[in-house]
Amino acid sequence: MARYTGPRSKIARRFGEPIYGPDKVLDRRNFAPGQHGQNRRRKLSEYGVQLREKQKAKYIYGMLERQFRIFFERAKARKGKTGDILLQLCETRLDNIVFRLGIAPTRAAARQLVSHRHITVDGKVCNIPSYIVKPGQAVSVREKDRTLAVIVDSLKSPRTAASSWLQWDEAAMSGTLLAAPERAEIPENIDVQLIVELYSR
């Protein structure tokens, strides 16, 4: 179950965006990491721009190249806009749903909750972070884990408005995927067309 485990602030500084959430280091040092980060003004090639966008999407959703490519091939095989479907697949991953519902403060924390068997899908424990949740399925905190500090604190913390494509039942600590999100409902700053163009080379 490979994943990126390096310093996140460096990645956020590389893209100039808080891709992992609020970042105090990025706020203080909003320039590329490294000795020459402040002086680097090199213009990227068309390929470089496309690659950068793909790398950003991978880091946001906590995926490595092989898995991200598999998601792209799945999206390509479906009817509709490949880029939008790719984002829908990423957004309906179980770890992302746990994050969007507010059960975990970050996607990395959500991934850990899933891996450690604290989350159920339709009442059954699911420990696969990349599991694709289908419309109508309920994602819940396992009953005996509902007092875990990380979950309680995350649910208490102020979050942005709940996603319109998810329904949350606070009493049951359970959320339901109403439908796959449309592109306009996904807040991530990702230009999916650049990713499609990169993989279509």
Give the arrangement of secondary structure elements.
Blueprint: H1 8-15, H2 24-28, H3 46-61, H4 65-77, H5 82-91, H6 94-100, H7 107-115, E1 119-121, E2 124-125, E3 138-141, H8 149-156, E4 166-169, E5 174-177, H9 192-199
Antiparallel strand pairs: 1-2, 1-3, 3-5, 4-5
Helix pairs in contact: 3-9, 4-5, 5-9, 6-7
In whole angstroms, the N-to-C terminal distance is 29 Å
Structural class: alpha+beta
Strand order of the largest sheet: 2-1-3-5-4
* Overall pLDDT level: 85
The beta-strand count equals 5
> Which range does the strand content fall in?
5-15%
Approximate helicity band: 40-55%
**Radius of gyration, Cα only, in angstroms?**
18 Å
- CATH architecture descriptor of the largest domain: Orthogonal Bundle
Assembly status: single chain
- Looking at the structure, the CATH topology of the largest domain is Ribosomal Protein S4 Delta 41, Chain A, domain 1
CATH superfamily of the largest domain: Ribosomal protein S4/S9, N-terminal domain
Biggest sheet layout:
5 strands, antiparallel
Number of helices: 9
Low-confidence stretches: none
- The ordered string of helix (H) and strand (E) elements is HHHHHHHEEEHEEH
Number of domains: 2
Regarding CATH, which class of the largest domain? Mainly Alpha
Using the alpha-carbon principal axes, give the shape: globular
Describe the structure.
This protein has a five-stranded antiparallel sheet, covered by helices on one side. Strand 4 and strand 5 (174-177) form a beta hairpin. By secondary structure, it is an alpha+beta fold. Helix 5 packs across helix 9 (192-199). It has helices at 8-15, 24-28, 46-61, 65-77, 82-91, 94-100, 107-115, 149-156, 192-199; strands spanning 119-121, 124-125, 138-141, 166-169, 174-177.
